Amino acid sequence: MTVGISLPAGGEQGENLVTTLLDQARQAADAGIGAVWFSQRQDLDALSLAALTGQAVPGVRIGTSVVPLYPRHPITLAAQVRTAQAASGGRFQLGLGLSAKFFVEDSYGVPFERPIRHLREYLEALGTLLHDGEIDFQGQTLRARTAFGPAGVPGAPPAPVLVAAMGPQALRVTAELADGVLPFLAAPKALDDYLVPTLNSAAAEAGRRPPRVVAMLPALVTTRTEELRARAHEDLTFYERFPSYRDILDRGGVERAGDLFALGDEEAVAAEIRRYREAGASEVVVTQTGFGTEEERLRTWRLLGELARQEAGAGE
């Protein structure tokens, strides 16, 4: 099982945020962490950061968690993916998400209509572009045509595509057309009872092998458990308003999103990470490691590197 982190971790400082994040990616790799995933924000571009990191930090796998597919066209996204894949020497993995209606429409002025149909057509088009380099596709929500012929980048094999899918319909589409899922705030119970069986069943029906399950888990090694738990409840309340997150929380038997923030000493955080593996996660990506102090972040990263080394040793 790969153990990764998500950047920005929170609380980054410095005169140049991109430089800071590259330095943190090097620091994570030095600690033994196997993968670095970049969050897409409105101030930073995750794909650009992934490409830069792929060149600057050898060995570590890189990804995005996640890039909203609205309003990017798959031809444009495929070009960005090829660039990041070539820059990293084949170590890039694309994390995609539908986002939410209010965000897409308010931010971009793009109608959020028939999202499951759009996800299906988007994944079909993107998969064709990444594998074949050209497309002439006309769907119900999407038109894509490579007017200038095949497009390919030497050194850029097709990158894995993962989707931040949690609803039943999105999981089925993902199982048919993508390589895995990136669920956030999906408790071990939700993984074990619902998400993994739904995903694997849909993959079997489509004649495909079980997709990867890359569980995103907020976690921090700290002695300030009660203080930070109260803050986590406040900071993660945002997610409780979204139907998809509310549903996955309910399936996991979780009332407050902040309850899923793994807080405590090394033993407590490691035990929580192992619960996700036992529930069916093939990988765990730890988020919000900058939630506390710099010392707490570094302590957490040292633990994650040690867990990665233990996993590697167990697999030999």
UniProtKB/TrEMBL annotation:
Domain Luciferase-like: start-end pairs: 4-282
Q: InterPro entries from the xrefs?
A: F420-G6PD/mer, Lucif-like_OxRdtase_MSMEG_4879, Luciferase-like_dom, Luciferase-like_sf
A Pfam family name for this chain? Answer: Bac_luciferase
Which keywords accompany this UniProt record? Oxidoreductase
Q: Known PANTHER family for this protein?
A: 5,10-METHYLENETETRAHYDROMETHANOPTERIN REDUCTASE, PTHR43244
**What NCBIfam families has UniProt attached to this entry?**
F420_MSMEG_4879
Q: What is this protein called?
A: LLM class F420-dependent oxidoreductase
**Taxonomy of the source species:** Bacteria, Bacillati, Actinomycetota, Actinomycetes, Kitasatosporales
